[in-house]
Amino acid sequence: MAIFTLRNIDKSYQGRPILTGVDLSIVRGDKIGLVGRNGCGKTTLLEIIAGIVEPDHGERRASRQASVGIIAQEEDFGGCSTVIEAASQGQQRLRALESALARLDERIETTPSETPELDRLVQRQADLQEQYHLLGGYMSHSQVEAVLAGLGFPPEQFSAHPATLSGGEAKRLQMAQILLGGHDLLLLDEPGNHLDINGCEWLTRYLQEYPGTFMVISHDRFLLNAISDRIVELDQGHLFSFKGNYDAYVMSREERRAAGARTQERQQKQIEKEEDLIRRIHYGQKARQAKSRRKLLDRLTDLPPQDLLSLQSSSSFRFTTSRASGEIVLQLEEIAAHAGGRVLFEKIDLQVERGQVLGIIGPNGSGKSTLLEIILGRRSSAAGRVRLAQTVRPLYFDQSLAELSGAGTVLDELRPFRPQATEKDLRSHLARFQLRWDDTEPEVCNLSGGEKSRLLLARIACQEANLLVLDEPTNHLDIFSREALENALLAFGGTVVMVTHDRRLLDRTATHVMILDGVRSRLVHGNYSTLMDEIAATNARRPARSKEKERSVASRPAPSPRRVKRRHTFDELEELIMNKESRRAEIQKAFYTEEVYSNKKRYRELEEELERTEVELEELNAEWETWT
How confident is the model at residue 436 (pLDDT cuts 50, 70, 90)? Predict the structure, then answer.
C-alpha cells in the first residue's frame, strides 16, 4: 500500500522548470535512492513529499496520519540543555505512547473488574504496548546513546549544550533526532555530508537494518549499493525508476540509454529521409503531399522526454602523465604531527612506489590533510623526514579549493597553463567537466562548490604530473562526476595519494589503504573491500576464541551438584519469591518511565538492582526445589 503518492507534479523556479509531470509512489517498506546531477531538483522533490514546498501543479497524497522525518534547514533543539536530551526529543512518538500508557494504567486501576470497559481498555493497552515495542521503546535510552555514538559523538559530548556544537555537529544531532523518531517515511538529503568514514559505515549498517521506509539523496555510491532496493533518477525534470541497488541501476541505465540512442539514430535517419522527399515533391502537383509530409516530420522531431533518459554525455576527462618518476616515489620516515598541543600522529613509516594508488582514511581530526601538506612540503613535520624522488612532479587538489585564484573568470584559471589555446579550445576543455555557459563566462567567485571542484580538476588536467595528491576530491561532486573522476584515476599512468571518504572510489582505484586513527597508522595492501574483509576476519576470530574457551570448559568433568541448604520455611520461601518477582516487575516497568530513562544514573542503579534480584530469585527457586 502506498503511503505517499505524487501525480503529475510540476515545479519551476524563476521560470526554469525543475520538475515536469513527475509521478511517484512510495510503498511501505521501500528503500529508495534518489540520484541526479547537482541542481536538478532532488531536494525540491523531497520537500514536496514532506509538504514543505507546494508544487505549481499536480497532486500530493499521503496516507492518514503518516509521519515524515526530514532535516530542517534551521536547527531548533527546543531549549534542550544537553545533546542527549536533544536527541531524545526526536522520540516524540515514544513519549506520546508512554503518556497514553500511563493514562491507561490509571483508568484500568479504577475500572471495575469483569466489565466490557475493562476488556476494551486492556486490549487498547496491549495494542499500544505492541507499538511501543516495535518503535524500540523498551531500549530507547540505550538506542539514543548508540545512535549518537554512531554519528560520531563521544560519550563526554552527550552532556554538552547544543549551542556549543559546530555546524556539522548540529546537523548530525538533527539526523539523530530524525533516525530516532520512528517515522513512517525518512527523507535524508546527503546524510553522509558531515560524517567521517566510520560514521558512513555506521549509517550504512543502520539503514540496512532499518525496518521502515526511506528515500535517500546521496552521491555515496557505496551507501546506495548497500541500502537501496530501488533507484530513482531525476533527469531534466523527469523521474526514471530502476529496480535493484546502485550496481543494477548503472547496468539498466546504460542499457536504457543505449536503446534510446538507437531510437534517436533511427529517428534521425527517418527525418533526413522525409526532408529529402519534401524537397523533391515540394513544387508542382505534389505540393499537397509535401504539406502532409511536413506535418509528419514535425511530429517526428518531438521525441517525448519521458520516454528517453538524457543522452548528453557524462563528464569524461583524463589526467596527463608527465615523464615517469623513479621507482620509489615517496618515503616517510618516523613522521609526526602535533596540533593545539595534541599529537595527531607519530612514527609513520611509509614507502609509495610508482603506479600505486594510496587512499588515506580516518576519523575527522586525525590529521589526514596535515599529512598531505607535510608530504608536499607545505607544512613541517614535528619529527622524521620526507623524501620525494627528484623526478616527481606533483599536483595538488586542496579540499578548501584555495588553489583557485578566486579572482577573474573561469577561463582566466586555465590560460596560464595553456597560453596557446584559443577560447574555443578552453571552453571545449571545460565542457569535459560539465562546465558550460551559453552567455558570458562567470567569475570564479560566483561558482557553486561543485562547479569550483570541477574547475580545479579541469585546471589540474591542463597540466602534466606524475604524482597526484588529492584531498577529498569528491566533495561537492555529483554521482556522475565521481564516476568520471574514478575513470580518470584508473587511466592515469602516475602515482596517486589521496584522502577520501568515498568508499566506492577507494574500492575501484586504491592499491593500498592507510588508516590514521589515534596517533598510530596502519597500512592495508589492497582496496577498501580488502580492509573490510580484514576487519570482518578479526571480528570473527573473537567469538571463535570464546567458543574455544567454552569447549575447553565443557570438556572438563562436570562439578558435582551443589547442596542447597534450607534457610526458610516453605511459607516464608513462597512469600519471598512472590515479593522478589513483584519487585522485578516493578523495576522492568520503571525502565519505561521518563524519570528513569532520562536519568542515566537512576537507570544504571535499577539495572544493578534488577541483576541482584535475578540472582536472589535464582537462589530462592533452587531452595524451593528442595521442598518439592
Answer: confident
- What is 333-354 written as a DSSP string? EEEEEEETTEEEEEEEEEEEET
CA–CA separation, 592 vs 603, rounded Å? 10
Task: Tell me which residue of 6, 45, 41 sits closest to 26, measured CA to CA.
Answer: 6
Contact assessment for residue 192 and residue 199, using Cβ atoms and an 8 Å cutoff: yes
Residue 35 has a CB neighbour count (10 Å cut-off) of 26
Paired strand residues for 409? 443
pLDDT at 313: 46
pLDDT tens digits, one per residue of 605-622: 877 787 788 788 778 877
- Extended strands (E) in 322-430: 328-339, 342-353, 357-361, 383-388, 394-397
Between CA 38 and CA 472 the distance in angstroms is 18
pLDDT of 529 higher than 90: yes
Query: Of 244, 239, 228, 246, whose CA–CA distance to 48 is shortest?
Result: 239
Q: What percent of the chain is modeled with pLDDT above 70? A: 83
- Which residues are registered as beta bridge partners of 6? 24, 60
Separation of alpha carbons 337 and 339, rounded Å: 7
Give 190: exposed, middle or buried? Use CB within 10 Å, 0-12, 13-18, 19+. Answer: middle
Q: SS3 breakdown of the chain: % helix, strand, coil, rounded to 5?
A: 50, 20, 30
- Please give the Cα distance from 502 to 469 (Å, whole number): 16
Instruction: Count CB neighbours of 485 within 10 A.
Output: 26
Nearest to 239 by CA among 7, 28, 52: 7
Residues 6+ apart with CB under 8 A from 145: 84, 155, 158
CA distance to 198, 262, 270, 528, 591, per residue, from 515 (Å): 11, 47, 58, 11, 40
Confidence of residue 393 (pLDDT cuts 50, 70, 90): very high
CB distance 510 to 483 below 8 Å: no
Amino acid code (one letter) for 270: Q
Task: Give the residue carrying C-alpha cell 520512528.
Answer: 182
What residue type is 135 in one-letter code? L
Given the C-alpha cell 535510552, which residue does it identify? 141
CATH superfamily for 320-525 is: P-loop containing nucleotide triphosphate hydrolases (3.40.50.300)
Bridge partners (DSSP) of residue 499 are 360, 471
